[in-house]
Queue: 2 jobs
Job 1
Amino acid sequence: MTTEKAPAQERQGKKWVGQPVRRKEDLRFLTGHGNYTDDVTLPGMLHAVFIRSPYAHARIVGINASKALEMDGVFAVLTGEEVKEMTDPFDESIRAPFDQLRDYCLAVDTAKHAGEAVAAIVAETPYLAADAAELVDVEYEPLPAVTNVEKAMEPDSPKVHSNLPSNVVWNDVFDYGDVESAFRDADVVVKERLHFHRFTSAPLENTVVIASYEPISDTATVWSNNQRPMLNIPFISKPLRMPSENIRFICPDIGGGFGIKNNSYPYLVAAVLLAKKTGRPVKWVETRSEHLEASTHGNEVLYDGEIALSSDGTVLGVRARAVHDEGSYMRREPIGAINFIRHATVGYKIRNLKMDISTVVTNKAVVGPNRSYGKMQQCYLIERLIDCGARQLGMDPVELRMKNFVQPDEMPYENVSGCRLDGGDYPGMMRRAMETFDYEGAKRECDEARKQGCIMGIGVGMGMDGCPINAALIRVIDPKRQTSGDSEAASIRIDETGGILVTTGSVPQGQGFETTCAQIVADELGITPDDIRVAPGFDSATHAYTAFSGTYASRFAIVGAGAVYGAGRQIRDKIVKIAALLMEVAEDDIELADGQARVRGTNRSMTLREIAHVAWRDLARLPEDLEAGLYTHYVYRPKFDMPEANKRGNFSFTYSYGITLALVEIDAGTGKVKVHRLVVMDDFGRRLNPLIVEGQIHGAIGHQLGAALYENLYYDDEGQLLSSTFKDYWAPTAADFPEFEVEYLETPSIATPLGTRGGGEGGGSPLIAASNAVDNALAPFGGHITDSFLAPERILKQLQQSSDHQTEIESGG
Amino acid sequence: MYPANFVYERPETLEEALELLAEHRNGTKIIAGGATLVPLMKLRLATPERLIDIGGLRDLAGESQRDGHLVFGAMTRHVKIEDSANVRESFPILHDLVSQIADRQIRNMGTVGGGVAVVDPGGDWCPGLLALDGSVRCASKRGERTIAARDLFLDAYTPALEPDELLTEVRFPLPPAKSGGAHLKLQLRAGVYGVSCVSVQLTLGESGSYENVGVGVGGVGTLPVKAVVAEELLKGQEPSEELLRRAAEEVSECTEFISDIRGSSEYRKEVTKSLFRRALDIAARRAKGETVEVEYA
Amino acid sequence: MPKRQVTLRINDESYTAEIEPRMLLVDFIRTLAKLTGTHVGCDTSNCGACTVHLDGRSIKSCTIFAPQAEGHEIRTIEGVAKNGELHPLQQAFHEHHGLQCGYCTPGMIMSGLQLLSRNPTPTRAEIRADISGNICRCTGYQNIVESIEAASKSGKAGDWGQAPWKGPSET
């Protein structure tokens, strides 16, 4: 396996960081030797299948598994009643009395969404478990279900949780600046009712859990493709009534996460219980239907938004009521609902903002982290309002944005909610985007095409992604919660033969950490990435970690890289110290290059291997106060503060941003949208590996364009998820996408040691640009986009209503 | 996710297969490519007790011309038809149809016999067969017979075959000169079931009038439909905007249009009208000798 | 229901086992032949993560019962690299960052091999159409298309997946 040789030029002394090094992890994936959780088998392992509610809301009258248990090779059943006895409910993030919301690993007393697991059965093989599951007889008493979020807010709505006073389980108002005056003084006010639709990043690998349990020591080992092992261990240890130290968590290779694999912890609890019950390791492999019905959905929001503008295009203020349809349990919510605060006003100098946010439970699947968690939704709100404002003013939407951008010389800029934007050139990026897109030329092309009867439109969108997340956000939800900040850890060991092993608490799901970590360490130690082994996956028994470890919120490039860089510096310092001692020179005279420690200006040197050997084996040569060995553990902690009393604060550390320009055409006979051109600009600060960053951008475009044009989780009025398989949930294929034209603007972050910003989630600019482009295309027909899902049927209807209207005028009716 | 258990038979000759069918008339299903049947079985929507795998009956595969018909053996894989230069040149409607089925892997596995016999409401072969007034041959121990397309589709997933019959051939009458056809489908995403699919086959008269038009519609109701009223309306007529508009209206009334996740019945009607107009246009252009490509959009 | 003894030829090796006929080919490959490179990503034959070659044709191994594959030659991702040397298509994926999490990659490679054996010089549009039976959630497909195109242009054609295995002539 080859790594790219760096060209002769060095940037700030970095040879490897910043280079498009080909990935170390590729070989095993390319040859079918990846080690995903379903590839793991243990002796005596049994297989679990969940029995799930067909009703959106039903009382579980009784579960009879006797016929199933009679089958040969069927071992055990677990029901909600047992779970209620054996475990404590999960912690909630919401305030009393709503923290009485009861959430267990199986439905207890009632099933609250179609597909919720009500029981589990374990058998020798997955096929047999499926047969056995059919014989488990569950008696349900269907109850009225509520699937419309506004109905759920009404006092006489069926209650999803009968022990709560209302389905509105959390509400708060965030009032920054003087919104009242802004709207009073405005020349133009535009009101929009917008719906951000429910979709999921649906990673190709579904959730898989294996649990084994040892009764004498009361210890468990869990294998799962979960993104946040070190948050989830304490999270499940409480329900399991086990000390968290007694749970070992192993993440093998993960086939995509995108946030969706954060919240699989109920299944972790169920698997441990099943392992306890049967005395054998138990594996559960989620099917795609289960994944779509019962894992995690992205935030679905209903906005009533308003934007106040002056006639010259200055945005004076924005206010909105946001109602979040959370599904039946809150789990990590309302973090997604409050995540707007992590960039709040995107790249604009909007000094007055008021957000009135409610989170409402309904009889649908649970909402949770999904690529650009709650942040894309806020960008959508702001960007659609800006576009509608531009339309009202008769102003070019690009021009209006330019007028309101934070300027590069205003950085760092503290926005109205306390976000400290860490650099960036928004107008510069917009100009570059317009140039690449040939904005004026595209507008002319559109006009020409319209004259020929084609329905074409141009749209622009900006996305912003504040990362990582300051856990003090949870204090804003509930001031009694004592969490804040973020951290990540890394360890480096150079053994006595000079072998180098790096571990981090970052849990990779395709982001290439084995390569970027190696690049960072290679630069510090003067070696090549090939010389370094980065431990794959995650194992709480062997990897460095902190309480915040995991991959989510685009944090790796900041905290993961920060930790590895810090560890690299530390071990470098120790190597230099030992080399200086052994060669009897000053530390400043030592330089590390080509795997050696050299005395500058001479040809005296020692290899890293020789130094390591002494550090481990030849201890009498080391001074007493120097710790033996070459091992370091480093924790990186960005400087996060507590929030201010009025809910202001810097809840992210870096602010990645991107702008998309899209040219679309609508098929007049079907309403289907074709994207002719998509120009995407991004700035995630300094790129550790430009090849990997570009891949992340492509992936984010894929998800966001996919969501805009193809992916929607349809529920019917009875709460049945109609798009519950890949036959009906249309994750796009290569044939559905245009060629992406991607460019990168690199302005270093002033906040991080390596100048990196978090990248990977994207801020939603492709999704937003698609909405704005279709809106632009429909404008001549009086059409208007109010939903982030661009359903062809709705678009066709808008076109036809216009032609009916035309016909009416023509016929004098 | 996992099918229920079954007994698996793999006859080596057609006779063996027919013997098995005669012996086990009930609870038995034939598996050819399996592209439709296996997914149904995995969801346990089909739970046959016995599966007869005709994959080994190599004599049942192949393209030929016989008695004024283009004939495909039932086991002819979709990909073979897609790759057939003869089909592409002389029967482009069939090339349109087969190349828009699902995806490459499914086309490598699925067969024309399976595609016709399964009577999938969203399938592509059935409207094509109806538009072209095709037919199938089936065999049993009792003998052989031909079933015309318009008699073949009884209900969703229910062809007019007896339980002991095996579909052996799918036949399309070779069209006269100045004929052309097209098969268009609206897929909301590549490879998924269409909102609607329309097959149009026509022959043009001397003056450019529609001598004969066949229209098949699929994906809009529980069954594929032959739009006979629209066909009658067009027959012998000169093309005109008004005629085409009325014909499209008739096509959108040819059956009860369903509402589902792909669209409401209203949307399906609108889409069907558009597809019909476009297919008719392409068919006419091909009838005049023009080469027109059709692909997923 | 009786079990059935089945022998499958996978990557030029024979694997014999007594199985329930309902065992899907992908499960035979993963659990009996212990070749876990072929993956499962859905339950409705849509995602293509399970793509393998049967007599040189790419098929979805989750949509065929193991006994149906008897008498045919199956090739999985593990049978693509030869003597530790990557196939030019695998090398191209590595060069052009055509994979991220790697879960769709075996299926993509098998589809790519078959595409290039049918059409050695595809356009980008043809590539996109031909891999439309393989879903990827990480890459947005851009670099996958890039990789396959690069491989087709590299002139290092080599074995594209038709020779050398000699299965029965296909039906």
Job 2
Amino acid sequence: MELKNYIQQSKLLSSTQVSAFLRTFHDVPNFTDAKVASGKGGVVEKNIRSALNYDLTRKKNLTETNWHNLLVSLLANHANYFLKSKKINLNLSRVVNITLLKYIKGGFYKKHHDNCKEHFREISAIVFLNNDYEGGHLQFFDPITQKMILDVKPEVGKVVIWPSNYLFPHQATEVTKGTRFTIVAWLI
Amino acid sequence: MVDLKKYIYIKDVLSKDERTLFFNYVKLFNEVNITNFEAKSLGETYSYGDMITDSLLISKKEKFEKAANLKFIETYSYWRLYKKFSSLRKHIDRPSCEITVTVNVKSDIEWPIFIGGEKVLIKPGDGILYYGAKVEHWREEYVGDYALQIFFHYIEENGKFIEYK
């Protein structure tokens, strides 16, 4: 099977849910610079990744707690469906991280894969929250030829799920207009 | 008989202790919830037939019967923890909700309900009794963090929805 067939796209949230989520979180005052994985843990490397990050595990009130748990539940369901439909024999135990990402104009994340020794991840997930921006394409590449195999269409409420390993290098291209909001999560 | 064309306002359905206990229970429920989300709405935390509210459905029945001067049969209870930007579109309830009592447990800001075109503010611990399956009701968008409501549902003992008991 072609690698791109292991990249699942499905509807996770309704447009009403996405709208309420963004209105709740888009201007929270606690966005910080997003980090990249390294041997020392996460570090800010603005030449590799330029994005702002809000940790949804903060759960600072009842609304945030509900959103966090709802997303964990839906992501676990979609990830388990993905594993079953692709006949991948793996039992996921939990969502290890769940974060709201904000890419303002000039924001990007260079080509990378999500799993490493220090940050072990089995499954990656990205949820698109808006598409009223330019640039900011999520693109996947063949790990050998480095040829692009998929340029994901950003549909509101859609989740993209794929194995976190080195076979799935991907990038977010530079946002050239507007602000791109996504949720990113990893499951182990 | 009390005029049930719109609603009956009932004071002190829940005592302060009952409200505190139930709110703390729901806070913990919300914290660990991974299964009960209102999919057709914003995914609010909810529960049908929770044993605490089902026991209140029985123990509070007499108070509601006295207020309405009618005899009721319990059908089910339900609670929902509304969150920021929750709303309730204009609707009537299913037949097994012939009689509904909506009780305000606790909210961080006021959140009126519109019933039969009238705006009603239910104080914490109080409730309104109405023909849920007959009278249209709705709420505008909530802008606070949480609003916890319990819904007690009954049918009339000799009413037309007796097959829903």
